[in-house]
Write a structure and sequence with these properties.
Layout lengths: L6 H17 L10 H8 L3 H7 L3 H19 L13 H13 L1 H10 L9 H15 L5 H24 L6 H21 L1
Helix pairs in contact: 1-2, 5-9, 6-8, 7-8
Amino acid sequence: MNRKNNQRFQNTETKIQQALLEMLEYKDFSKITVQEICKIANINRSTFYAHYLDVYDLIEKIECNIHQKLLSLYVGTGATKTNFLNPKYLTIFLSFIYQYRNFYRVCLQTRKKFPIEQGFEPLWNNIIKPYCQKIGFKSEDEMMYYFVYFQAGFTMMLKRWVDNDFNESPEELSEIFLKCISNGFNTYISL
């Protein structure tokens, strides 16, 4: 029997992931141990290691699961390649970040960039490239520079939001972000 499709195996993975997410609410990620996760999940260490290599492998798997949940939020919403950057869809995204704030707090503290590597190709092909083409970018190199700039700016805005303990609502941050993008494009287009 395939263990990954086994309901018991999946339930154990869920318990382990929930234990880590629970611990992130009160403990710094770098101080969390496998032993503590096992205690909260009520499993032994060998069970943990049957699922994950270490705590870092666990956080990467959680990241993949959360990323899939995020993408599923947009199915059936009318989000298209060229209308993604509007208040409605950006607020959905920011509300999701807020819902999983403990996880994203860890991601933004331990990394220099926002965790989108898993979804880079779909993000590039479905959102960034069509949007850049719509506003007049011709070369893929130029689009990639824009994307790198966009990603760095967006990541730092999110980091500030996290560091300030989410002082602004997702709607307020969406408005601020869209103003920044709009002003950035207007500056670029007027050059």
